[in-house]
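Changelog note: in this version the structure field was regenerated for every chain. One regenerated record is shown below for reference.
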Amino acid sequence: MKKLRIFVSSVQKELAGERLAVKDFILNDPLLCRFAERVFLFEDLPAADRAPGDVYLPEVKSCDIYLAILGDEYGWKNEDGLSPTELEFVCATNANRERLLFVKGEDDKGRDPDMLKLIQKAGGQLTRRRFIDISSLLREVYASLVASMENRGLLQTLPFDGSPCSGASMEDIDESRVVDFVETAESKGRLTLKGSRAPEAVLRHFNLLHDGNPANAAVLLFGKEPRRFFNNIQVHCLHFSGTEKRKPILSQQPYEGRLFEVIDDAVEFVLGKLNRPVGTRAEASQASGDFEVPRSVVAEAIVNAVAHRDYRNPGFVQVIVFADRIEVWNPGELPSGLTPEMLREPHGPLPRNPLIAEPLFRVKYVEKAGTGTTDMITDCIEAGLPEPDFKQHGPHFVTTIWRNWLTDKVLGDLGLNERQMKAVIILRTEGRLTSGRYQQETGVSRQTASRDLEKLIKKGVLERHGERKSTFYTKARGMTHLCLLCPKGN
């Protein structure tokens, strides 16, 4: 069995006690010491003529786990303004090392601004675990290292999806759903069964039985009442009128049940809140019926959240529709070695719950090629939308899909005046705008409204439809309409 090399990173002087405590704890704990070959602290090395970076960065690259303890101080800076701690974090990230992050303090008051930036940067990629004192730090370290060893297969415990569902039997499986699954998978060309097609045989074929009784994945996918066995399987969908999570909530709906149905229901909830570009029959034989965000992008984000979430976490998935974006909050974090930046590039599949992901693949809910996030990016670009954002936010992984290209950053670059910004707000919430509506909202004359709206057309924000009294405006479709050479102004 290969033992693990652990690199402990922090500002040495400020957190000297914490560093030593972590090393001693790992090397002396009856369980952890069986799996740790070495815990590296820079101060353990003898004095040498080599520059510090020549010593500790190779150690980061060769470690299995990078463990960062961050406090108030940022530490000494090199000529580029970077501390050893930040250099080590960047090195561990680039080397695809598993990273564990522990932040001292309940809040960020009194923290060095550069350290705060590093904490925010790291927190956008992985979960920040906070601690108050050394004893609470050691508890967090222990829990994190045990989870790491379980994920690596060093501790022989069954993964969640393959573990037996406590108290469940084949009586709790809806056999008709298993039959429907087989027929759908065969029609999609992704399943050819040889042998019995009985539901129990199908579940055994997909490793969804444990000693004759259903595994957790079997109940989640095909159970009669999954809610009886799991309190955290809910996908809670919410719709807000503005761009913040603030009352009133226009609508909300919790979906809980079999995962296939929950996914479908959540996707339809989102699509029901999206606009469809108006279009004209002059552009095509029929008015456009496409959603402002491609269905494939919405579905991929929700499927990823349901399929890859951490089901041992008591939280649940949230899908939130705002006026300018869709957010999908997923309990858990990315698998070890995978960062949010890597999701923008081709990468191999790393399913957290492979026994859940496999049936979803057979009915074309997911792919095995690891192309889901890159497909989302491509589909958004082709629809004229900004690329989705992927970020770790505390214990949740958050995917943000922009409903249109008029993001706050783009609007800031356009230099719109206060009246024109009101036009954008109307477009975000109502989907279309007329001169009369603009006059009513801003209190300007018809002539001023005409000039303002014409400038918004020239800036690429609006498109005009109809003639004379029937004229109305919609937001321009796609970032290609943005006039980058257009001077800022009113």
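Spot check on this record: The mean pLDDT is 86. The two ends are 68 Å apart (CA to CA).
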